[in-house]
Amino acid sequence: MGALQLTLGAIGVAVSVYAWGLFVAGVLRMIKIIRLGQPDATRNGPFVPRMRTLIVEFVAHTRMAKLRKVAPWHWMVMWGFLIGSAALFEAYGEVFYPGFHWPIIGTWSLWSLLVELLGVGTVVGGVALAIIRQLNHPRRADRLSRFAGSDFKAAYFVEAVVIIEGLGILGVKAFKQSSGLEDPPLWSSFVTAPLAEILPSNPDWVSIMAIIKLLSAMVWLVVVAKNLTMGVAWHRFSAFFNIYFKREDDGGVALGALKPMMSGGKVLDLEEADPDKDVFGVGKVEDFSWKGWLDFSTCTECGRCQSQCPAWNTGKPLSPKLLITQLRDHAFAKAPYLLAGGSKDMAGDEVGLTSDKYEDYKKRLESIDVLAMAESERPLVGTADELGVIDPEVLWSCTSCGACVEQCPVDIEHVDHIVDMRRYQVLIESNFPSELGGMFKNLENKGNPWGQNAKDRLAWTEGLDFDVPVFDGELGDAEYLFWVGCAGAFEDRAKKTTRAVAELLHTAGVKYTVLGPEETCTGDPARRAGNEFLFQMLAQQNVEVLNTVFDGREPGQRKVVVTCAHCFNTLANEYPQVGGTFEVVHHTQLLNKLVRERRLVPVAEVAEDITYHDPCYLGRHNKIYEAPRELVGASGATLREMPRHGDQSMCCGAGGARMWMEERIGKRINLDRVDEALGTAPSKIATGCPFCRVMLTDGVTARQNEGTAGSHIEVVDVAQLLLTSVRRGQALERGDVPTDETPTGTPLPNEDKAPSS
């Protein structure tokens, strides 16, 4: 141990004491900040499935693998960080004594191979990730870049440290060999052994490389400890917890059912809620649960959510990534005020820092950073003039399609957070797009968003050459309750799907019944718009009716078939939250089952080229991809997939109650999706959701009017394709008319109409 080793060692130890102390303090502060969120006991267990999910996701990189060009490089860097930490701590010995190695394993050839692989993998992975970031730089692709709005300096800093760490691992090992301190077999040192041949034989270089390896890590610790919002660095630690505490303990993503409205860690009972104590949605950043704060802290700014977002891709102000990072920056900036006990009531008056003694009050105020006090005055949702954290246009641009949640590699729950903010805006602030007012009134007064009369719910049966059984108090031998849905009962285009499904069930001899006037909206548009009170009212009413219908039936025999993807999701996933558990199937699933059982036999091929649009609430939210495609194949049609399909399918623009809102910013989402569909040169565009059908039909009509789409192209439901084939080629009903030409439903009063754009 020479003077150089003693000097470098002393520097390494001194810097390490400072860096580790700062880092530990940063970790403790981050934990304290995350705990500012509301409690959420639903994340506590069960341990085994949650741990299994965590292990699978990080070992196999199942979430990262959704972007295959990135996954292998990130996988290398991840293991380089995890196992490479052992090589890092080895540097504390190597800097003092060049020949130092870990006891026992340090002489194993397999350990030598592992270190070699870690070093090479870390360097190659780090370089590859930097190149990928450069190739996708927003200066070249603008909104097409998933990195638009990301913090490039932070990312390059992290990647630089990764590369330096890898070079340090390889450098130490190579100089040990060149100095004769180690002589591992070539197969375990396939890079460092040849390199050692050209390096000087000087043990001092081992200590120099060791201090480089050590100090680069210490610099990283210092920088991240001083920058708690550097998610691209902190996700190395927080991602494990974020994955473990994800909403679904079975490993599923936070799609399907929305998270119930909670207050104080418990599901909020609206009938017993206390406005003075309970939290109604999220009106302030501290109203988010601690898991929400953990989400904000874990975002890596990779932009996968942004690249898949239909709003962002059509010029809207919403970027799921930027929404999360804005919430993160606001939360951490406001944290000193909250940690000091600051809080405001619904009227905006300070209630946390008050004190009878002026000196105590003054002292508490002076202890809070002035910037934190200023941040505490900002509204969570507000315009730029109001200094709002989240602009209302951002909040209401979301279609709740779930593409962001599906793509996020660290399981951030964007949709739940967006809807929670909408809940507060609707229930407390009464601040929402004017068009939704008419929809809410129609749901409350008429039980459907179109404002039609309940007595007209059976109008779709007119003209059928068979009787449609209507529930009359006895379910009898009916196997299924056919839930028609509001669109299926009132919207002219959706009626064709309803009629096709009814005819196919009749042909197959399936016993079913419909509710007719007893049916009402499931409440999906109300809930996605944030009107939880209206959703609860509709849901409880429907559950009461359905429980009466299925009275006396075993749980597995309470079967419901639906044609609407939104009704399907609500009945299957959300009604259990209000006491209604049923066996819900989508019509594509049931029809596909009937075809497989030969109860429906296609006898004439639909010799056409079909492209299929995955409805978000059928596909991403409920993982039903194959049944509708198999039906397209069973009809004899040739399926032509769009570039974005399956779990990467593009939204039609109707979800999240957007069906009832005007689209005034950027390109219309349905036009973007129709343009993609037309790119496959189809004769028909098939789907499995009435809302998708309305949006796509309007888009096709717009392109036909412009002369960019053939007049022969139409949008149909897959059930209609199957019916054509089963009918021996008899023509389908035609003549879909866009709603801007022939509106459906009861006209809204003038005061509820949206201003013309």
Automatic annotation (TrEMBL):
InterPro entries: 4Fe4S_Fe-S-bd, 4Fe4S_Fe_S_CS, Cys_rich_dom, HdrC_iron-sulfur_subunit, Helical_ferredxn. It comes from the Bacteria. Keywords: 4Fe-4S, Iron, Iron-sulfur, Membrane, Metal-binding, Oxidoreductase, Transmembrane, Transmembrane helix. GO terms for cellular component: plasma membrane. Residues 730-757 are annotated as: Disordered. The chain crosses the membrane at residues 6-28, 73-93, 113-133, 205-225. One of its GO terms (molecular function) is oxidoreductase activity. Gene3D superfamilies: Alpha-helical ferredoxin (1.10.1060.10). This is Fe-S oxidoreductase. The keyword Nucleotide-binding does not apply. Residues 290-320, 386-418 form the 4Fe-4S ferredoxin-type domain. Signal peptide: none annotated.
